[in-house]
Specification:
The protein has 193 residues and is an alpha+beta fold. It is built from 2 helices and 13 strands; from the N terminus they run H-E-E-E-E-E-E-E-E-E-E-E-E-E-H. Strands 1, 2, 3, 4, 5, 6, 7, 8, 9, 10, 11, 12 and 13 form a 13-stranded antiparallel beta sheet that branches. It is elongated.
């Protein structure tokens, strides 16, 4: 009986350990230069597609790349930063599966730059600071496959230089593993009887 419980405990720890993915960090600095309608980045088998818009989600813009990070270019007079001066810039990051957002890193920010965060197109946080290194979030606070940042005010301007996420395990996989453990327990019990 004790060996059976030990086996089950080892299997559960192994299953939980394998179902929990390690954090993935994207480095958008030194990613080349230029403007494009969208840019894909893949790290650890997880792909994020970056797109840009302005004054909401329906007006397409270009994603701007420079050695410091990613920004938005929405016209001839617009800078390549995420800013609110000419038009409100939105930078959307869409993943190929569900992730938990762990943090953003910004560059070219000043002491008073702030951003708003959208999850699946819905505003969830306002006036978050871009200065002081990483803006971190607790695991599970924001879970989605789409995140958007925009400059909070007209005088904010910055680029996105990095992002940390953690893939969320597929519910079906965890469900199947649970049934497998249940089946093993039932087989062991039947063998004892």
């Amino acid at each position: 009986m004790n060996r059976f419980l030990l086996l089950i405990a080892v299997l559960v720890v192994g299953v939980v350990g394998s179902a929990t993915a390690a954090p993935i960090q994207y480095d958008f600095s030194d990613s080349g230069s230029g403007n494009a309608p969208s840019i894909d980045f893949t790290v650890g088998g997880l792909t994020v597609t970056v797109t840009a818009s302005y004054n909401g989600f329906s007006n397409s813009a270009n994603v701007s790349r420079d050695p410091h990070g990613l920004g938005v270019k929405n016209g001839f007079l617009d800078s390549s930063y995420i800013d609110g001066f000419w038009r409100d810039d939105y930078l959307t990051l869409s993943f190929d599966r569900t992730v938990s957002l762990l943090g953003f890193n910004f560059d070219h920010d000043t002491l008073n730059d702030e951003f708003d965060l959208y999850v699946d197109g819905i505003s969830v946080a306002h006036n978050l600071e871009t200065t002081g290194g990483w803006e971190s979030f607790s695991l599970g606070t924001y879970v989605s496959d789409s995140f958007t940042i925009r400059a909070s005010e007209w005088n904010d301007n910055f680029v996105l230089s990095g992002m940390r996420v953690q893939a969320v395990p597929e519910p079906a996989l965890v469900f199947l593993m649970g049934f497998g453990l249940l089946g093993m327990g039932m087989m062991a019990r039947r063998r004892r009887a």
